[in-house]
Amino acid sequence: MMRAALVATGIKELRALFPTALACTVAIVAAGMMEQSGFIVVALLGFGLGSIVIGAHSVGHEFTHRTLGTLLSQPLGRRRIYLVKLGVLAALLGALALAAAQALAGRDQLRSPSTGDVLLLVGLCGLFMAPALTMLCRSSIAGIVFTIALPGLTLVGAELVGVATFGPENAVAIDRFREILFWRVMLSLWAVCAVASWWMFARLEAIDGRGAEVNALGWLRGAGRTVPATLQRRHPIWCLVTKELHIHQMSFLLAGLFLLGIFAIAAIDTFEPARVAEVVMPLTIVYSGSLAFLLGSMASAEERQFGTVQSQLMLPLPARIQWVVKAGVAMTLSLGLGMGLPLLIMAVTSLELVIRVWPTTISVLVLTSISLYVSSLSGSGIRALVVAIPAAIGAGIVVRFTAGILIAAALRWVPSIGRRGLLPVSAVVELSALSVAVAGLAVLLLCFAHVNHRSTEASVTRVRGQVGWIAALIAFELSLLLLVLGVR
Predict the structure, then answer these.
(1) What percent of the chain has pLDDT over 90?
(2) For residue 487, what pLDDT band results from cuts at 50, 70 and 90?
(3) What is the dihedral of CA 271, 273, 279, 285, to 10 degrees?
(4) Apex CA 216: angle with CA 213 and CA 221, to 5°?
């Protein structure tokens, strides 16, 4: 009887985590098969974000699906249940790490730290830190955000302590001290999180509802003051904007943690500017990508999880206006916080962020659009985030393969191109063509997301048709780009 109950619990965990792990594994392996070095970064991001999301989802899916009460009422000891969860999570993270190691084999993009160190760091963060922080915050999204932030802040803190201890001129001693202190602190955090997870799960309670809300916007307005209840007239558009900002509070928290890390790095920059680029660029790339995924995933799915989609559609305001506000706020925050904030930091500080503005802008817009489309088909923000990461990686791989097929066909069947090769074009023409292509894809994704957002069910037929139209548009745009950028 006990064995059957444990097996059933393990199967339930596999059903919750295996689809995400499988999607991330396939995306990582496919990205590792690509020859371009940029796909190695994609594989690393997929492994890092995927491991942390799976770790947070191992406990967070009980909060999301409101099955925690049913789980805790099972005739099993809580520690046995947690051991089953931990075992399933460890097996999936191990498979993900093996896929990432295979994808990175023979690549020299990682010099310091080594590939093994990165895999160990991310794997243990997903195994111990993400579940503990998820239980502490009772939110998968909060657990993901804090798990991403803590290693970065620890690394910056170790660098600051090393510079203050040995002086800015002793680079070798600082590097050695930073590495030793960082790993010791991370080992301590993993141990604390492992014990805390065991302790918190044994005392976990199934509390109905979401608990007390963290009203960050209310803090800015001085919500702590006692204000008499009076009727106020507000513009409906402004009310919608404030509602959307409330949904994206975790994005503001992520931006605040990024600012905290940047200010600490700026202190290092006053001592030794040459060392800053080693930390700033990876931190900025992870921040911008994570923020784009987070903003898009929360926009539509969170309202569906709250059960407010139908009531919003009954407001005396056209649904298309509401959607324009929703998508506009997500895109504006994605560009403003993901691109504008690093550029503003670069302008007001001495930090030199080597940011390619246009490629980064395109990446942020595309990732936000894909995440928003996935969000319109999901019942919760964490589910949308779980699907959006491998979906974006898979979309990039499909686009790369499609472009290769079209270029090969053009070189084979068009003699003039075959003889001359792809001819260079001006930067203005290239930027204009890419702008039109990205704008067309983003508009189509947002239009389809609007249709899905208004519906209570994700029709398989409708989704299949939308995917077909998206694939057709991508192929058409790639063909036009080949003609515009390859032929004079």
Answers:
(1) 17
(2) very low
(3) 140
(4) 120
- What is the rounded CA–CA span in Å between residue 272 and residue 167? 9
- Identify which has the larger pLDDT, 89 or 8: 89
The average confidence (pLDDT) of the chain is 79
CA separation (Å) from 395 to 30, 31, 42, 434?
11, 11, 12, 17
Q: What is the pTM of this model?
A: 0.76
- Return the sign of the alpha-carbon dihedral for residues 293, 295, 300, 302: positive
Does a structural domain hold residue 228? Answer: no
Cα atoms in the 13 Å half-sphere on the side-chain side of 39: 21
Does residue 120 sit within a domain? yes
Q: Which domain does 153 fall in, by range?
A: 1-207
**Do residues 441 and 474 lie in contact, with contact meaning Cβ atoms separated by under 8 Å?**
yes
Number of domains in the chain: 1
Q: Which residues contact 110 (CB under 8 A, 6 or more apart)?
A: 104, 118
Residues in CB range of 275: below 8 A, 6 or more apart: 159, 171, 174, 268
DSSP H stretches of helix in 114-248: 115-124, 130-137, 140-166, 171-202, 216-220, 236-247
SS3 350: coil
DSSP state letter for 234: -
